[in-house]
Structures are given as C-alpha cells and as structure tokens.
C-alpha cells in the first residue's frame, strides 16, 4: 500500500484516495512535430526498476495534481512535490541521491 | 414553487452509533483565490465565521466555512437563505476571478453521533481518526468505501458528512452497516 503526502493540502493520502496519472515531466509534441516525436510522446514510457517519477491526482481530496518520486521496486517514497515544475526539484533529487547513489532517470540525475 | 425535500427525507438508523440524514442544508461552493482580501471578507460576511485554515472547518450551527482545496471553500448556511446568500456572494465578488454556486440540492448531509462515532467512520474512510490525529475543527475530504465524501466533527462524538445526493442511499446504507449493533471494535 502506498501513502503519498499531497503537497497542496498536506494530507497523508492513501493510494485509494488518489488517481495515478502516469509518468511525470513528459514534454508534449503536438502539431508541427515529426511523426517519430509524436509517437514517442504518445507511447514511449520509462519502465524502471527503481527510481521513478510519477504524476498523481488527489482525486478524492483536494483534487490537485502533484508529482511523486518513488522506488518501483521497494515502494519507498522519496518525496512529493507540486506540479508547477518541469523537472524534479533539487531537494527531491538530493533525497534520492542520499539513498540511491548513482541513480538516473531519463536525463535526470 | 415545489417544496424542496432532502435526498432521504431525514432517514435515521440506530446501532452502535446514531446515523441521521439531517435534511436540507444550504451549501455554496466558492472558488477563487482564498488569499484575496475581498474573497475572505465576502465569505466571512455571509457565513458569519472567520476564514478556516488549511484542512479546517469553522462552523457555528447551520453556518460555517469549510476549506475544500487551495482554491475552494464550502459555505454553509440555512437552506431558506441559500439563494439570497449566493446572490450576496456573487454581488460582493463582482469583477474578481471567483465563482459562487448554490450546490445545496446536489448534496446530502448526514450526522453520525455516539461514543463510537469515530469507529463507524474509521471503518469506511482511509483516514487516521484517532483523537490525537482528528479533532473538532478539522475538515477532511476523502473516500467512503466507493464514493467521495467530506466530513468534520461537530463535537467530540459527532461527525457531519457531506456527499453527493445521487449516492445518498449508498452512503446511508454504508453508515448503517458500519453502525450495526454488536459491531464495535473499541479501538479508540
């Protein structure tokens, strides 16, 4: 069972109170992009064993979208942060480095 | 004009706790910048209570303000003045980026009361309801079994629950089952 703290209302929300929103920090490729870029944007996803960044929505609570950094293997949660960012904030990355030295995720490290 | 009726017409159930649909309650959804001075003033003027903090409810009788999300308040008022109060809010917020809507008829309101009311609620919600973690004055939006709900404590032994009107019967049945005689867990 996963418990994530919503960064907007501060509630420690049970997984069943949340909706999963898939991989975080996707860059949108829309009109004007190449077919390959559009294909990757639609279908290509990270599937790591270990550190992962995801979007979640506090759907049975305050209704806000947020991001979570967690480990898909151990279910350990490194932290949650607000959605108004295009990359994981430094304090989250530092928290992961402290526990998983040498981790990488896409082009983030 | 037709006579308004609540979803379950004040149905009640007695078990280890008393479950009661409390009938008509005026409810106004107010969305906007909760830090804005004019919105705070307008909400407080209508509800007659101070602005609640994050995850808090300020209620006095049928009036109150509940913190729903970073940009949403639930304004409580008696049912017979809800239309006037909605208009008053809209008037006060003219020109600001805000929204006030009367949602009274879209909701149902329940009360669960008794010494083990906390247990009845804890059976249904993924929330820490121990006295240390949840107390009167706090407000929580969550899930009750399969449906969204919000609740706060009127006093140490009474919960007030707001849910969608379309699931009122479901919520009443849930609460009744959770309050079945002999089902006390005596956890809290």
Explain what the structure shows.
The complex is a heterodimer of chains A (109) and B (188). Chain A has two helices and six strands. With 109 residues, chain A is of the alpha+beta class. Chain A has one domain: 2-Layer Sandwich (Folate-binding fold), CATH 3.30.2270. In chain A, strands 3-4-5-6 form a four-stranded antiparallel β-sheet. A two-stranded antiparallel sheet of chain A has the order 1-2. Chain B has one domain: Gyrase A, domain 2, CATH 3.30.1360. Chain B has a six-stranded antiparallel β-sheet. At the A-B interface, strand 2 of A face strand 9 of B. Chain B: InterPro entries: SoxG, TrmE/GcvT-like. Chain B: It comes from Sedimentitalea nanhaiensis. Chain B: This is Sarcosine oxidase subunit gamma.
CATH architecture of chain A: 2-Layer Sandwich
Specify the biggest β-sheet of chain B: 6 strands, antiparallel
Gyration radius of chain A, to the nearest Å? 15 Å
Poorly predicted runs of chain B: none
The oligomeric state is heterodimer
| Count of domain modules of chain A | 1
- Give the helix tally of chain A: 2
Q: What's the domain count of chain B?
A: 1
How many strand elements of chain A? 6
* Distance between the ends of chain B: 47 Å
CATH class of chain B: Alpha Beta
Fraction of residues in helix of chain A: 10-25%
| Name of the CATH superfamily of chain B | Probable tRNA modification gtpase trme, domain 1
Most extensive interface, chain pair and sizes: A-B, 15 and 13 residues
Q: Could you give the count of β-strands of chain B?
A: 11
Low-confidence stretches of chain A: none
Query: Can you give the helix content of chain B as a percent range?
Result: 10-25%
User: Whole-Å distance between the termini of chain A?
Assistant: 27 Å
């Amino acid at each position: 069972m996963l418990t994530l703290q919503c960064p907007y209302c501060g509630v420690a929300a049970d997984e069943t109170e949340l909706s999963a929103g898939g991989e975080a920090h996707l860059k949108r490729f829309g009109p004007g992009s190449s077919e390959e870029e559009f294909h990757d944007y639609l279908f290509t996803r990270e599937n790591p064993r270990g550190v992962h960044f995801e979007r979640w929505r506090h759907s049975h609570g305050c209704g806000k979208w947020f991001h979570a950094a967690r480990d898909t293997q151990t279910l350990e949660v490194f932290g949650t942060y607000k959605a108004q960012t295009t990359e994981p904030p430094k304090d989250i990355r530092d928290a992961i480095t402290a526990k998983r030295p040498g981790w990488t995720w896409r082009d983030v490290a | 004009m037709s006579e308004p009726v609540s979803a379950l017409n004040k149905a009640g159930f007695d078990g280890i706790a008393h479950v009661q649909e409390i009938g008509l309650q005026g409810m106004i959804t107010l969305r906007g910048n909760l830090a804005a001075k004019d919105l705070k003033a307008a909400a407080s003027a209508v509800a007659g209570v101070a602005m609640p903090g994050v995850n808090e409810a300020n209620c006095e009788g049928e009036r109150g303000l509940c913190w729903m999300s970073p940009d949403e308040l639930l304004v409580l008022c008696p049912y017979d003045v809800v239309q006037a109060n909605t208009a008053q809010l809209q008037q006060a917020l003219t020109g600001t980026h805000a929204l006030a809507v009367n949602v009274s008829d879209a909701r149902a309101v329940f009360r669960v009361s008794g010494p083990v009311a906390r247990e009845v609620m804890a059976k249904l919600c993924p929330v820490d309801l121990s006295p240390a973690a949840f107390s009167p004055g706090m407000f929580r939006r969550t899930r009750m079994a399969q449906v969204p709900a919000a609740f706060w404590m009127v006093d140490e032994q009474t919960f007030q629950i707001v849910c969608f009107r379309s699931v009122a019967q479901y919520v009443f049945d849930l609460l009744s089952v959770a309050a079945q005689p002999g089902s006390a867990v005596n956890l809290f």
